[in-house]
Write a structure and sequence with these properties.
Elements lengths: L2 H6 L2 E5 L3 H13 L3 E5 L2 H10 L5 E5 L7 H10 L8 E5 L4 H10 L3 E4 L4 H18 L1
Parallel strand pairs: 1-2, 1-3, 3-4, 4-5
Helix pairs in contact: 2-6, 3-4
């Protein structure tokens, strides 16, 4: 495996409509030794995935503008080159139907908001371990 491929595979796609949340989560992702590739909404995440499938994981807010996380996940699960990417969904919605819908669409993990940086870090590690098992 070349150095370029190894570095590229240490990237996580992070899509959330809130710039403060993206910044905070990007910091945690970087502390774990990964590069966060940020998207402002589901449409931007979709475009990034169309152009590039080399991600260790993806983290999406449930309620994103333009295209919600479930639509992006369903797209990922129909594309052979994206199927292996584990996905975490985050939401402040307290209704259990959102959890069920996330898993039904193909999410690997669900993280309810609000959460602490430590909770996010632990969930991120679980997400990345899922990739190791699936790859």
């Amino acid at each position: 495996m070349s150095l370029k491929v190894r570095e590229a595979s240490r990237r996580i796609l992070l899509a959330d409509g809130d710039p403060v949340t993206r910044s905070l989560l990007s910091d945690v992702i970087q502390q774990e030794g990964y590069t966060a590739i940020s998207a402002r909404d589901g449409r931007e995440a979709y475009r990034i995935l169309q152009a590039d499938a080399d991600f260790s994981g993806a983290i999406f807010d449930m309620m994103m503008p333009n295209l919600d996380s479930l639509e992006v996940i369903r797209y990922m699960r129909t594309e052979r080159r994206l199927m292996r990417i584990p996905v975490m969904v985050m939401t402040s919605q307290q209704d259990l139907k959102f959890t069920a819908a996330s898993f039904a669409a193909g999410a690997s993990l669900f993280l309810p908001k609000p959460f602490t940086p430590v909770q996010f870090e632990r969930t991120l590690r679980i997400l990345l371990n899922n990739r190791s098992v699936a790859a």
